């Protein structure tokens, strides 16, 4: 069963960095529970379909930008955390934040994204 560290890495690369909607949907099905809840500063998405639509909208706001890990994974119990940066490949990031994931039965059940100030 996948742990939080592996799931956060897959989420970043296979979901938030995946431009193809079909491959992204397949990764969402593998990484997230059916009833996942994703919350960031501006929205809460409930369920895989709502999450997929939210990610599609986020990717449309910054075409060509990529998410990269910006620090080590940290975790305790069923929670995992990892900072990230968003920017053009090889250039200064335009945004950063921290993802906090709660894992249940080998999938992310809750995901919070806290943006840097």
Automatic annotation (TrEMBL):
Q: Domain of life, per the record?
A: Bacteria
Q: Which residues form the SnoaL-like domain?
A: 10-110
Pfam families attached here? SnoaL_2
**What's this protein's name?**
SnoaL-like domain-containing protein
The species this protein belongs to is Geodermatophilus nigrescens
Question: Lineage from the top down?
Answer: Bacteria, Bacillati, Actinomycetota, Actinomycetes, Geodermatophilales
